[in-house]
Amino acid sequence: MKQFLCFFLCICALMLNSACSIQISQETSSTENAPQPVDEAVNIPVTWGNLNLTGRLIYIVADFKGGSSKGGLRVALRSLDLVTGKVTTSFETEVGGWVRSLAVAPDLKDLVISYSPSPDEPLGGKEELYIMPLDGSQSPQLLFTPSSDQDQYFQPDWSPDGRYIYFTHINYQSSSATYEVMRLAYPNGKPEQLVNQAYWPQVSTDGSHLTYVSIFSSNGPNGLFTVNADGTDAHAVPLSGSGWMNSIIDAPLFLPDGQTILFSAPIPVQSSAPSWIEKLQGITVVHAHSSIPSDWWTVPLSGGEPTRLTHVYSPGLFASLSPDSRFVASYSASGIFVMNPQGGDLTQIVNYTGGITGAVSWIP
After folding, report:
1. What is the DSSP letter of 328?
2. Do 40 and 74 form a contact (C-beta atoms < 8 A)?
3. How many angstroms separate the CA atoms of 364 and 362, rounded?
4. Average per-residue pLDDT for the chain
């Protein structure tokens, strides 16, 4: 419960930070794009028609739902049809429940989510991996039983062939939390460790490699790495240039060329020291990185000085490639926008996600 409280306080800090958010010009409708309770999804005007986007965005949104004795903050999974603008909700937590990350199976039948049920449910307040039908026809089911009440799991990602689910494991038994990247052979395998002191695993489009963030200490800095899909032959991606030795790196993603990594980071001159709320609550910096306003950067696999793609200065960045590899969808605490892999054609798609860390998956 202590970890869940810390995570909730971190989210509160993120909501305060989200005042520094992206400012992208877009024609909006004051009625249809206004923040809505999570059970009242509506169509979004298709103001991005000139980009000829297809497929759907599966994403996380949170909002306060009142009107009854059970009113309060809830989190929902939504689907946006990029052709029609139609929005549907496939799952909604009870008050006190939380969904932080998601991954859609390659066959588009199932969805893995990192889900914390409400405190009065089994495993309440514990972030574990659950699986459910993508259409929401059944409620989430625990993917595997955690080893102990100190073990939590999040940041799932499927291999392109659907044979493996990669994810981050965190254990709170020691004085400082320990992280590791793991994978599970789907559907009947058991979790196996791949990389120690690491998180944010993302699989390359051909399934041969992972990119991840290595944690050198509980208060940073962290480093960008690649490794074979089975956890062998890890290589650092060295970042050169002023300030990168002390920077914060999050949410890496292989770009379509297979030779470039997209990642989220604040401008490197910023300090990685804990904020006052992190010091007060004892939250490790690495667990609160996504609350820091950041931008998208790229770097070759061989390393070098990163190239800044955006100037959105927004917390909670998380990216997903479009099925045709022409665009990148970016989740943020202040909405979802798309851009091309070079950072151009920056266009707001969803104006409201609830001011939280979350995730998006772009599917056909």
Report:
1. E
2. no
3. 7
4. 84
